[in-house]
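Write out this protein's structure.
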Amino acid sequence: MTVGRGDGIDVGTLLELVEAAAPVEAVDAVAAALAEMADAREVSFLIADFSGRAIVRLSTVANGRDGTRSTGVERAETVPLPGSRFERVLRSQQPEVEPVDDAWRVTAPVTDRGDAIGLLEFVLPTEPPPDVVAEVCTAAHALGYVVIAARRHTDLFEWGQRSAPFAMAAEIQRRLLPAAYTCEAGQFTLAGWLEPAASVGGDTFDYTLDRSCLHLSISDAVGHQVPAALLATLLVGGLRNGRRRGMDLAEQAAYAGRALAAEATPGQFVTGQLLRVDLRTAAAQIVNAGHPFPLRLRDGRVEEVELAIDPPFGVTPETPFRVQSFPLEPGDRLVFLTDGMQERNAASLDVAAALADTADLHPREVVHELGGAVLRATGGDLRDDATMLCLDWLGGPQRRRDTEHGADPARASGPVPTSHS
């Protein structure tokens, strides 16, 4: 297939080229085609690092720069986010155009439903007019789907995102998490995160949508490392299996609790919360299995949402869980969290104050900021998993979301103050 130089970006042609390429070469095929279509000197893809504090440039070109890892011909250059143009673009979800030597650089977000996958960087010989910048943003959005599809068949992207090696427990636990940590919809935006990303074992969060309901869960398995990861696997597997069999909230909780009790060693358990929001009526219900209370930011004030407490999953498998009504109003921000945010050497962190300080940020940024705050509070020595799930409830009727290249521009965080040009 031939690609015309300077004729503009043809997304259909890009997708055909991707399908013809091997999965490990999908991004390279897109980059080469984009360079020719847009007459670009250079096209780079940078993927978000699992730490949440860096971006990783993937390539097959050795550059000798610090922070570059390699395996075979693959290269991954880790670039810190704080204070960089990459951070500004990810937070604002808007492209940035700037002169660089005798060329112009366009940096555009690669995003799907608010999930910030990474960035696309173009270096062009002349200043691009608005229509070319818009084409770059469209190509970046399409690249998001390319990465989502290609990563099912290759470890390249997973390897690139791991600037720190994963412990075995984290490898198991990674399979329990949703494929995307962020989701924007018409009535809500949510985002989850966990610290430390490379060595956690017992914490999980999950979500899924059907035509009329949003389902959320957060859990914390007793213990640490691989034993905790295996307990978490039993619980999450039970919850998902029950949900996919059409069980209601109480039935899902009971089914998962019985499965855990049947397979786990006596004395092992998992705390957790299950939330179900009816998108037609905006009514919400919750099961609280021995878990810390959620926090709610409403009208500028942070407070705990007090709930009745049932035993953790696996403790009393024949006792039914109570399904409680959960108060929900448009404009609420809810944060579900595990005890790693509040106990042991993280006890000095005022989570409520940190949540209030992030009121203007997108949930994707809120969970990153809270994760960073708990690391600062512990001096980087976090002795327990710390997991967060942030839900912004916008309310109103079921509806389509407003979207621009994979993100809702009205929900993006503002530009990050920086002294850099």
